[in-house]
Every structure is written in structure tokens, then in C-alpha cells.
UniProtKB/TrEMBL annotation, chain A:
The chain crosses the membrane at residues 18-37, 43-63, 89-112, 118-142, 149-169, 204-224. The keyword DNA-binding does not apply. It comes from the Bacteria. GO terms for cellular component: membrane. The keyword Cytoplasm does not apply. Keywords: Membrane, Transmembrane, Transmembrane helix. It comes from Shouchella clausii. Its main location: membrane. Residues 47-223 form the ABC-2 type transporter transmembrane domain. This is Multidrug ABC transporter permease. It is a multi-pass membrane protein. GO terms for molecular function: ABC-type transporter activity. Pfam families: ABC2_membrane_3 (PF12698).
TrEMBL record, chain B:
Keywords: ATP-binding, Kinase, Membrane, Nucleotide-binding, Phosphoprotein, Transferase, Transmembrane, Transmembrane helix, Two-component regulatory system. Residues 173-237 form the Signal transduction histidine kinase subgroup 3 dimerisation and phosphoacceptor domain. It catalyses: ATP + protein L-histidine = ADP + protein N-phospho-L-histidine. GO terms for cellular component: membrane. This is histidine kinase. PANTHER family: NITRATE/NITRITE SENSOR PROTEIN NARX-RELATED, NITRATE_NITRITE SENSOR PROTEIN NARQ. The keyword Aminoacyl-tRNA synthetase does not apply. The chain crosses the membrane at residues 12-28, 34-52, 59-81, 101-127. It comes from Shouchella clausii.
Amino acid sequence: MTIFQFALKRSFRNKTNLLFLTLFPVGAIFLPASEIWPFLPFGYHYFGVLILFVSIRLASIMLEDRVKGVVKRLAVAPISHLHYLWQNLLAYMVILLFQCALAVGGGVLYGQELYSPFALFCLFVTFSLTSLALALAWISLFRNKETSFLVFMSIVVLIALLGGLIMPIEMMPAVFERLAVIFPTYWLSSGMKWVALGGQTTDILLIHGMLLLYTVCFLIIGSIRKIA
Amino acid sequence: MAKLARPSFYMGLWRIGSLFFLTVLWFIENGTKGTFVLVMLLAIMAALRWRVRLPSWTVLIDLCFCLLFSPFWMGSLYGLALPLVESLWRGRPYYCAPIPFIVFASEAATVHFVVFLLSAALFGAVVRHWQQQRTSFWREIDQERKARYELERLKIDLLQANSETAQMAELTERNRIARDLHDHLGHDLTGALLALQAYEQFQHGEQAEKMFAQVKKRLTRSTKRLRDTVHDMTPVALIGEQTIESITENFTYCPVSYQKSGNMDSVPVYLWSLLIPCLKEALTNVARHSDATKVAVHLDVTETIVRLSIQDNGTCSAQSKDGSGLRNLKIRARAAGGSLSVNRSSGYSIVCVLPIQERKEAR
């Protein structure tokens, strides 16, 4: 578990990372709620976007490893690429889990209307997995850390918009409304709607299932070992 | 761009293309949210196939996914193209045997659908054939390369064996000369010496005369045998440096100036067998390809190396390449531990440098 511990330490060493990882989730707790839309307080509604940003921030450490030649050195070390990958991902997932718990727990204590905090927590955890896998797949395409981060930011804004996180999906043209299903963010916003308004259990199972399917797909794509 | 020449690249394109097609179909046909799961499942299988080499039977999983979703969305049957192409590409067409039955049993058996599946099958078969051909070509190229390396190895071994044989022949010849001198000359000279010592004792008289005659006879015989032995050893054919001199003298195409320096006897026999063809090749090239009017040949022998330089004043292009004769000589020079270099900057010059330490080691 050396890589796991090291990945945790590295994630907190950077000051910008520290800001992302602690201040923003805490800030999200105190954002007010809207009267009509979104159904959840603003801080929680946009928490998915924050998770996406945090994921790419964390995963870009692995990109840094590739650029600096750490992956090349690991290739000759008595450790498999799979070990390196899962221990890093586990460390990042622990951080994201902690953030989700902090945001949801903090909200409950602060007295925000979260309807079903546990269901919301589960949804955020599943989405964290998806976003981490997406970030992993994304960085496997790039060599430059800055480029990958900047392009990913614009992609995040786009999929957040098309997925119905920034504005209600019902307001969009019918074509975009159907197209939204393709993006993982759509399933997050549906999940949050389900948490707020309630619904059938099969619906939330489908939402979690779809997010997990995205996770598996992106993990497979991102797990390729690229020795640059 | 090397990846463009690989069938696997086009298989990857096909996978992405068919998943995109399925998504578009789902979009056009207003598929439900639940049926989009099929696209995701097929995408996961395709990603797995791209990432690791899955067993061929896994196409049955894709097949089952398509079948499971067909009651909810007829368009899912178009997804059958994926397992169809995969199984054909792997050379396991029997895994897609249920597809015709599924197609004709379902209501989706339109002409478009059948043509779509047939074209997918054709693509799979073509890629499979291409892959097989490519593999067999690579195998053939590898075998050819291996054979070429073995031949080169053999050639070097033979050249080394040649030089070793020459050295062995020289040693054998030296042994024979030593034996001849010992067997014929040695006995007679020893006898003559003993007779001369006896002659000293007798000084005068009949015995002394007899001894003197014997010494004379033995010395005469020894001289004759020595002459015979030397005569036997002297080869009829020209050897070594004499050959070089003779070649330069007999060259009629243009005047050849020949200069030599050093002790020619210190050059081992096997090196002459390399220097002579080198000179012959150079002069042949002059006669056949060059417009030279004079050639200068230098043969320098030092304690450690022998250097043969052939320089002409012809005008040759710097781009001209070495022929097979020169290439062969270069390999032979390398095998002997030396080198052969060609310079085209002013006229045409061949310099062959060979080491002669090995002979000392052989002694």
C-alpha cells in the first residue's frame, strides 16, 4: 500500500489541490437553496461539477508521472501496472468519498433540505467513481497536463450544460433532451431529481447501473499503459 | 502511420463506427432510457476487446445482450453486426451460427437489415483474410532474415577457416622442411664432421686419404641434397609479393607504378590470398569502369600491418556504389581483422589494411 499512501500525500501537498479538496466542499454546504429549480440547494446541485474538476485534478498526478518518466521506472520495478493503477485510484476515491461525506454530513448538520441524505450520498459516491474513471480515460489521451486540464474544463461545462446540471433539461430543445441521455451528467441530474421528488426503486437502480457502466467503460479505456 | 497498415486498427474503427451507428439508431428510433444500456454494454465489450485479448466465445455474450434487448427495442438486432464481425475476424464463424435464425425469426428481417449484416460479414471476412496474409508474410520475412543471418555467419566462419587452414599449411610445410633437413642433410653433415675429426688424428697415410675422400664425398652429397631440398621447396607458381609485381607489370590498360617497402616475408600466406584479389578487383574496375590514365600501387609492410593502396586518376562520381566484388572483399578483410576502405574524393582509391600480429601468435 506504499503507492496508496504516497498518492494521498501527493494529493494534499499541492496548495491548489488542498483548496479544491477541502474549502470548496465546505463552501458548498452554505450555498442557499432555490425556490423552484434546482430541487436541491445550489451547493449540492453543482457538487457534481466540482467532483468532475477534483477528479481531473487528482488524476492529472498520474499524467505527471507519465511525463516525468515515473511510469517508465515503475515498468522495471517489481510492481505491476495494475497495482499502481488501483492503489492510485483507491487513494483518489478515498479523497472523493471523504468530500462527499463532508458535504452531505455538513449539510445535514447545517440543516439543509436534502430529502434523503443517504441516497444523495450514494449517488455522489457512484458519480465520483464515474468521474474518476472519466478523468483517467481522459488523461490517457494527453501528454501535456495543462492542455488536458483546460480541454477537460470546457468539456465538463459542455456536458454539465447538455446533461441538465446547469439548466433544466426540460428547457432545452427536444433533440438535446434526448441527446442528454448519452452523458453521465444526465444520470446524475436524474438521480438528484429522484432524491428530491422520489420515484420507483427501479429508476434509481437504473441510474446507479448506468453510472457504473460508464465507470467500467472509462476504466477499461483509461487502464492502458502508455509509456511516453 | 504504421498503425494504418494493421488490420486491428480498422477493427477498432469498425467497433467505434458500429457503436456510433447504434447510438444514432437509438436516437432516431426514440429508444427508451433503459435500452441505451445495451449500447453501453456493447461499448464495454468493445473496449475490453481493444484493451485485452478476450476469448472468442465472448462474442456469445454480445449476442445474448442483443437478444435480451430485442423485445424492448427492435433496433438492438443491428447490434448483432458486432459479434458477427468479431467471430469472423477471429476465424470462428460457428459462434455466429444463430444469427440467421434470429434474423428470420424476428420481424426485423427487412432487406436493409439483411444487407447490413451481409456487408458486416464481408468486412469481417476481408479483415480476417488480410490479417492471415499479413501474418504469413511476416513469418516468411522472418524466415528469410534468419536464413540470411545464418548464411552470413557461415561465410564468416568459412573465411576464418580459410585463414586457419593457410596457417596450418604453412606450419605443416615448415615441419616438412625441418624433417627433410634433419633426415638428409643432418646425417651427412654429422658424418662429414666425424670423418674430418678422424682425419685430424691420422694426419697422413692411407687411412687419412680414405677419410678425406669420405668427407669430400659426404660434403658433395650434402651440397647436392641441400640444392635438391631448396629446389623442391621453391614453388613453380609465383607467390606473395611476386604475384603482385607480376600483376602490375602485366596490366596493359594504362601504366601502373608499383612501389613497395618493408619486409615482404613477414606477411602471412593467407593475407596474400586477400591482397591479390583486392589488387585484381581494383585493376579490373579501372579497366572496366574508369577513364584513368595512370594507377599507383603502394605496398607497405611494417611489423604490425600490411597496407595495400591502389590509387587512380579517373573521374568517378562520388555517388557510385560498391559492387559485390568490393563488398565481398570488405567482409573478407573484416574477417581477417583488417579493413578495406574506398575513397572517391580525388580519383578512385582503395586502401586495404590488414594486421599481421596473428601470425606471431601462431608461431
